[in-house]
Input
Amino acid sequence: MSAVGQGSSAREEKLSVNTRTLPPGRKARRRPLEAFAAVSYVTVTLFGLFCLVPLWMVVSGSLTDESALALTGYSFFPEPFSLRAYELLFTGQSLLNGYIASLFITVVGTLMSVSCTASIAWVIARRLPVIGRPLTIFAYVPMLFSGGLVPLYLLVTQVLSLTNSWFAMILPLMLAPFLIFVAVSFFRQLPEEILDAARIDGAGELRIFFQIVLPLSSPILAVLALFYAVTYWNEWFTGLLFLSDPDKFPLQLILQNLIANVTNAAQLPSSAAGAAAPVYQLRFAMTVLTVGPILLAYPFAQRFFVKGITLGATKG
Amino acid sequence: MTVEHPVAVAKQRAPVAGSRKGRLPSRDSLVLMLLALPGIAWFLVFAYGPMVGLVVAFKSFNIRDGIFGSPWNGLANFRYFLMSGDAATIVFNTVFLNTLFLGSSLFAGLVLALMLNEIRGGLYRRFVQSTIFFPYFVSPIVISIMLQVILSGVGGRGGLLNNLLSIVDLPQVSWYTEPGAWPWILTIVKVWQLGGYTSVIFLAAITSISEEVYEAAAIDGASRWRMALSITVPLLLPTFAVLVVLGVGRMFFGDFATIYAIVQDNGVLFPTTDVIDTYVFRSLRTIGDFGTTAAIGMFQSVVGFVFVAAAVLVQRHFQKESSIL
Output
């Protein structure tokens, strides 16, 4: 089973480079483009545009002068061009606060998540006698049944008193059972021989894990880190529940405030700029700055996500 | 607890038992358990803790007496929820919307995968694939803002769609006060969000189809369309079935963040968009009636469990080896 996961993810890598490229001779023979292929090109391209247009409208809006935005509510081309919103955001305090909060939650959260996921997954993957199976079930049951929101709310606010702490946004999401099992299936593919060799050389279990298993597992660690990082970066509703101090809001929560009330945008640049703040433009600019990091990391990270999904999909 | 279990060891470790059997003393097991400890602690507090906390559903909760001190009130919370007219609406919406979402995103993913498979230019294909996969990583809040731009403009000044409508002389629609349209709007959002993601799963399955089948079909003179329809689609059906089963299993735990981020507290849209999750979340924030809200949450968990368990059983029945346990 695990071999299938490995195989198809390896194939997936190849897939992105050249899929089922026919031998050159045959390809030339099929020169006249078939109808289905033509329809495919058009449809897929249109869907691609459909995915991009909303994004483009936000970027374009963030660069359009408030006077035009106030008339139309959106803009396809940044005309008249203006950088005012970005200037205000970069000189004010709340963007910086938002980035600090989002970065803290994402970096600290991802570190905690990846280390805990990898270590418990490794123990599960070892199939220890007696405790192995109960441990697997212990980690599996939460995928089937959850206590729900209210007990979680009471736990975080009453028992742990984490209100207004960034850890209230980290801890509830710290382990994703699904990713644990993705990691387990990866660990089970590691060659036994290497571990046995280490054992014969007298390496202890901790040493084997930290010095042999982890270095061999960098692909899966990257997959875990990226999935967790995106989750933390995009997280907002635990923030809505547990954070009330605006100075601690991560970017997503600042945006949430802007949705609830567009005039909140006027409070974004905390510097008293004199003239009325460009509330609509600020909203777009804030959105761009929130998606920005993901957009920048995406080209490099994408293949890891594909690998993770493929590994997960073959695992069910 | 850490005692060696020779039979189990011999069974599971058969190939390397010789070198292993004596080499996993209880001390090593203990060390490994230490490694698992942070994870176990998390599960106990954040996964199993809330399950215990569900006792609140059977209590008349108040903050002063706390979770275990508050007086019991039997099934009153459940009765209150089921009597209120909301129960039927939100259960219906949950099932209806999630069925729409599941069906449309699977269909879109399948079609996109088939079509991406026809695109030969490596670079262009990679570019398109990355593009349609990207929406999966856009946060619900950002989606909500994009949708506002299209449907109403930032300041409620018409928006892109209404301007397009006015070009072809159709009446303007005030989308955010039109509940009837929202199941379909949300479905389109879901296709936007998940179409590319689902196509990645299908493409992974397509690559595992043997090349020879296509070559044989090509020799028989089949067109690419014919091959897609008669070879690829039938061979993708198992994957499709698994995704359907998983989706049905998760039906009661739909991705409420997207819906809530879009609809927010816009009461006009509740009749068609309010699902169990958003209902629970809103009652928690605004009403603060923990007992009733916990009861709804528990109702969701139990029904959800039945769905998930059924899904797992169905899947195990058809796919013996791929189940996790």
